[in-house]
Amino acid sequence: MLFHYHLWTPNVEATEQFYEKLGFTVTQRIGKTDGAFTAFDPPLTWDDFRDDGIRFRIIEMKRGAINVTFGHGKVVRFDHLGFLVTPEQRTLLLERAQQMGWTIQANERRTFIQTPYACRIELQTHHDAILSDDQPLKRIQLSTKQVGFEQELQRLFGRAIDKVTTVPGNHTVLQQVIFMGEDIEAVDPNGVSVRQIQLPVVADKHL
């Protein structure tokens, strides 16, 4: 299940505020201060540390079946997208990634596959990465300089991944995300088009 994406951005606080307005909850903030990484998780707010010069490595926000993370960067840059998989699926995917010649970075919590498309794929087996199965991430659209990402995803997963689409571009950029929820169209502080859609209500024929 596609559940996640990660950005680097100079607009950290504004990005948090944007997603908070969409109903996301901050579950983690890790930032560097005095040469060491420290947690600034809620109930702390930006008023508690805004002027402390913290460089945030990661801020994690969750809503339903969606997990969004971002950290401080000099420019906006898309880093990776993530799939929630079973341990058995993870083993199979890593075998295929090795056959494809893709680099694997793994630890107890997360596994990353480095692709030739200037982005990574995260494989997550821990279900606590999401809050629930509600309001899933419906689609991600990327622009990529090198064509063929969708075909390579199909080769990796053994099936078409229709929730990930690409268009030609000069760089790998996250262009659009589509969620389930109240109908909204907006652009986040990093230029990502965010669209929420509601499923149409089907009338009960027996009424």
UniProtKB/TrEMBL annotation:
| SUPFAM superfamilies reported for this sequence | Glyoxalase/Bleomycin resistance protein/Dihydroxybiphenyl dioxygenase
Protein name per its UniProtKB record: VOC domain-containing protein
